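User: Hey, quick favor. My workstation is busy. Could you predict this chain's structure for me?
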Amino acid sequence: QVQLVESGGGLVQPGGSLRLSCAASGFAFNNHAMGWVRQAPGKGLELVSGISASGMTTSYANFVKGRFAISRDSAKDTLYLQMNSLKPEDSAVYHCAKSPGEAVVVETTDYDYWGQGTQVTVSS
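Assistant: No problem, here it is.
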């Protein structure tokens, strides 16, 4: 079955960096677009970043452009999110998500599987 297991979250000071990882299994990783979605307490799901199956196309929410970078390693079936210049408003649970298709998705509802998430807290 499809499994998505996130890691790399934690507590970091404003301006700091974290690198999230998502280990994927149970499906052909190279054939599916992937992405990161976050949810802060009391807020809805936010699409953070997506990457196509080939890795050639990426997308970012305006609020992370220039600070976050998504990537994927096909040899390791792993998705990454490098987060730099973190702000307190970036605090949330970050979920890795799988798309049923190859193209980058534009809506959170376009993903068909989600991981349990990893907590990111940005605070001094």
